[in-house]
């Protein structure tokens, strides 16, 4: 538990320092640029680290040398800006109303939310994908640069989420394995945003008291309910939910007004490009979030930004710097620019994965997301919605935390249309940053999710904002906000029942668990030999490799071999061999 907390504090210091330094440097020429809250500074720091690690990972492992370089770099930033940091800390103290009951109530609520996250992270993960391939992916990233044809060893190892790069960077060793604090740390940012909204709604002017003061808290509790058993896993799925929620809240002006009028607000445009493109590199299901910076650039053009072409050059260049290394890493791992889209042409290289293997992974993702019967998971994807939608809907309504957002999202367009009909001026706000434009992007993201792979893990960030946007924008009195704060505290206490019960009835090893997080044991494997003599661990328990020594896979494909003498040179499948399904 102590290591979990230490990991979060280390992440907060490191990522906020990087984000604050970058924002300070970017806005030096724009004195009217707004200040960013802690959540966005930390998120920006993570995004910038990812942008640096992505090309670096093509030639270097994210090992101890990179960790040491990061440590020295952050120390240099802190020492070189110590006066500015002291001034920033002094300014923050002046903004805190220490005598305010709302501030102390918010601090108490944040403590309860943080304790929920801490105890669930400490308890360990029940996410099967962590044992299946997350932990193996992180080992490969730590020990080797991007490995050509790694997907030939195990198709899931070709899934290229850049989140794994930063996750591997912040690994912490324990006696029973490596602990990865980054994914659960991101959940704490959503908790901070939840409390920030409530406190600002209670202490701010009356015009700021809308349902958006409650939005962060609602999003946090839905997130916690659905992913509470996954928090200890290095899963990109729930990280993307947090990332999209924070980004859409930002564009909805949850954190305050961020006008986009012209050159003076160029830093906000670049921030939107950075966070949106990084979301896509975390998981491809975030692709519609790119509409946010596109909308912002369109708004800036309508409001007189100079040079229509020049306005797009900087953001387009930044997007290219973020997305091209992601495509490059895809090409190295699988031979395809966007894995597992088998329809896109790949490279004519010997490590290119056979099309049948790629198609198998693509079908598995879509058919499982559509709740098809297990016998149909590897079959062709249903061409008509009538073939899968009824069974999918029956499965969703059996989960109240998923069914309610789905139902609210279904009626949200009617609510928005009715409100625009009652007040036509509301429709004009879509031409500027705000809840309506963010809601339209969430609608596009939800449609993209439903049509392609409607597993709630892939689109919940869009779905929650689509479902809640029309209601969050309604007025909310101070009493309502206080009531939600009290209900939030009660809900947090209620959710602490199981973790506290576990503390009262300790299991063997509970004393060491005070220091170390609970990590999964190594799953059973057997050793097999490739034709070239390489020994490979083959999983026995449902394909789970966990942190078994490299290389490990769920099954050896016929014709699999190394491309050279070392594992770092990659894997290929001989063209004469027919891969299994």
Report on this structure.
InterPro entries: DUF8201, LIC_10190-like. It comes from Hymenobacter amundsenii. Keywords: Membrane, Transmembrane, Transmembrane helix. This protein has helices at about 1-25, 40-55, 65-80, 80-95, 100-125, 130-145, 150-155, 165-170, 180-205, 210-225, 235-250, 265-280, 290-300, 310-335, 355-370, 390-395, 400-420, 425-430, 435-450, 455-470, 480-495, 495-505, 510-515; strands at about 170-175, 175-180, 525-530, 535-540, 550-555, 560, 570-575. It is mainly α and about 575 residues long. It folds into three domains: about 1-90 and about 100-345 and about 400-495, no CATH class; about 355-400, no CATH class; about 525-575, no CATH class. It has a three-stranded mixed sheet, with no helix packed on it. It has a two-stranded antiparallel ribbon with strand order 1-2. It has a two-stranded antiparallel sheet with strand order 6-7. The two termini are about 40 Å apart. The model has no long low-confidence stretch (mean pLDDT about 90).
State the end-to-end CA separation: 42 Å
- Read across the widest sheet, the strand sequence of neighbours is 3-4-5
Proportion of residues in β-strands: under 5%
Major sheet: 3 strands, mixed
Number of strands: 7
Question: What is the number of helical segments per DSSP (H or I, 4+ residues)?
Answer: 23
How does the helix and strand content classify structurally? mainly alpha
Segments where pLDDT lies below 50 for 5+ residues?
Answer: none
Q: Please indicate the count of domains.
A: 3
The outline comes out as: globular
Average predicted confidence as pLDDT = 89
Q: Helical proportion? A: 55-70%
Rg, Å, rounded: 24 Å
Order of helices and strands: HHHHHHHHEEHHHHHHHHHHHHHHHEEEEE
Pfam families: DUF8201 (PF26626)
Protein name: DUF8201 domain-containing protein
Organism: Hymenobacter amundsenii
Keywords: Membrane, Transmembrane, Transmembrane helix
